[in-house]
Input
Amino acid sequence: MDMHDDVDARRFHIHRSSLRGFEQAFVYEKAQRGSGVALLCVHGWPESKRIFWKVIAPFAAAGFDVIVPDLRGFGDSGQPTDGFYDTPSHSKDMYSLVHDQLGYDRVVVLGGDLGGPVIQDMALRYPDFVDRMVLFNSPLPFDKERMAGIDGTRAPREAADYFVRQGLDADALASELSTADERRRYIATFYGSRFWAHPGTFDQSAIDFHCEPFADAAVMRASFGGYETVFHPSKSSEPTMMGHNASTPTLVLFGPSDHVIYPAFDKMAAQVFEKHVGPYLLRDCGHFVPWEAPHALVSGTAAFCADLLRE
Output
């Protein structure tokens, strides 16, 4: 494989679904062997489906039917008519896409960052649909009793300025980012100077590739919607079902070079998911696990799902 394929927006065919009042763009690569196990990969912020470009083909080669959408408002997907960008809306979109559009009755879900709460909600909202989870570098429900005595259960305060601004002052921030170049430069800081990734992971071509979707003003503004739901309850369609999970088998991975997620993410996740495997720490890896540690993610997921892949 040519390394330039990793930053080629045309590498995979883009499919479309319109079951939920907007056009959802997604990659759908069928397994290269066997009947195929449905694997839904859910991106976060500031990401798009492109964050999975390195792992789509290897997942398909391992026997997965790989489904990689742009969440509502992100990337090539459209803006929803209902105006919601909350976790439950994303969760229902994912169910509609995989179950109603593509016809699967079981799915393995994988995600980090915003994708983490989405798949956690899915697992509890649709317990007969979600077979198991692969979770990395994600927000978690805080359980004061179970997490007592764990140091590092709060994200670094100095890294939270973007979160507050995007949640409380989204319109003004979007207005300040008035050109495509300004929007790209803003997103680029999260792949570089803000130290979310392990140092040196993203070269300029990779940064440009991941920033490109956010050059669109509508995409940038829509992407702030999830942050607004934290501060404004009216921005949510309903409460999330994300919480303690005693039933879903969950592989927990952690890129510890991440300077935005809780330093004790791995220990916290072990308290949230009773049927967890791991947690496993990924050397020289930060927030963007599918891009920074693609082999570990693919091989770990394949081993975790070995029984499904043999069926």
